[in-house]
Structure prediction request, 389 residues.
Amino acid sequence: MSALGAYHRGVASSQSQRELGFAQRSGSLPGRLTSGRSACAPMTSPLGPCSGPAPFRAQCAAASGRAAIRPRRAAAPIVCQATSSEKMTVAITGATGLVGSRLVAKLAAAGHKVRVLTRNPASARSKLSYPGLEFFGPSEWRRGVEGASGVVNLAGEPIATRWTEDLKKSIKSSRVGATTAVVDAIKAAPADRRPGVLISASAVGFYGISSTATYTEDSPSGNDYLAEVCRAWEAAAQSASSVGARVAILRFGIVLAPEGGALGKMLPVFQIFAGGPLGSGKQWMSWIHRDDVVDLMIEALSNPAYSGVFNATAPKPVRMSELCSVLGNILGRPSWLPVPDFALMTLLGEGASVVLEGQRVMPARTQAVGYRFKYPDLSDALRNLVRNN
Ligand SMILES: NC(=O)c1ccc[n+]([C@@H]2O[C@H](COP(=O)([O-])OP(=O)(O)OC[C@H]3O[C@@H](n4cnc5c(N)ncnc54)[C@H](OP(=O)(O)O)[C@@H]3O)[C@@H](O)[C@H]2O)c1
Prediction:
């Protein structure tokens, strides 16, 4: 199995389906709006007033009810979007990944229509098997985007692997390339069938690394390689606003999920080394439970206040030593034995920087806009994740 294949652990398991209550559902996806509020505030936008098909008009009407929460940095006015209680059609890149598979499961369980934009439809079909899913290969992304109410962009070469020069190029080009492809598809859609919103992933690596600074969405970008990747990635996404789409960029912290990502890698390391801080232990870990990152994306799809940049990190970041101590307690393993840098460098090469160095990031705008974290505390998050594993 390739390194890339090994990292793709985000398969929607039957366990996930059960957790989400999917198995109890009839399996029919309504795919239609069930409600719409009557008052639609006058909207000005490069796309003009909402004149799209019925679902879009109803979404537009509903949007006016959410005007109370305003982002601090205003962005392009919104044309059409759904509220969280209405049925959406969401096109997703990177849907087969650790985060995407959970997003697909949750959207499908709630009766939303999901279109999977993938590099490989056959492989994606084998990983995601919910009734009503549609799959679109690279040459079909335009068709997959047209008529969707929103797009979520998660695609990118995994970074927590051994970095070679070629891989570093691919880490950047895969993100910028997939984002450009999906933004081009949004731009190419006829105005009355154009998605109203793009939710695009970025990472807290945007800020660079520091053991002393605290970063919010207003902080400047860092000077290292990952910061440069994030800037290019975000700029590609932001360009969708030129045709009136609302763009929300979510800078993900370390997404905690037992099947993969940092926690998925740490759990076996803990087993081998009897647990303990990775590296110095002083590095900051700005983490988020996978359910919160998924809920945040679903909220951002339907709530027009989500425009601009939002940190997708829990409000209580911790140092690595604390994360290991909490994890050790929950696993009933000692957590005093540090895992030396060289062991991780052997395993992950330069990619070890993802866990050996970090940054303290606060979700200032995310909280200001009203998002309530289901798991603000690390111990609750880890207990939930480890017990449900
Ligand atoms: N997980 C984290 O802790 C974390 C933290 C910060 C940022 N992020 C970012 O959030 C996004 C989603 O994270 P994730 O953990 O769910 O990612 P993931 O599990 O690695 O999945 C990413 C998806 O991107 C697609 N992909 C993989 N390699 C690609 C390539 N070379 N070119 C184009 N597409 C490629 C794959 O979908 P198909 O095979 O279906 O095309 C894959 O399922 C990623 O962009 C990641 O960088 C994640």
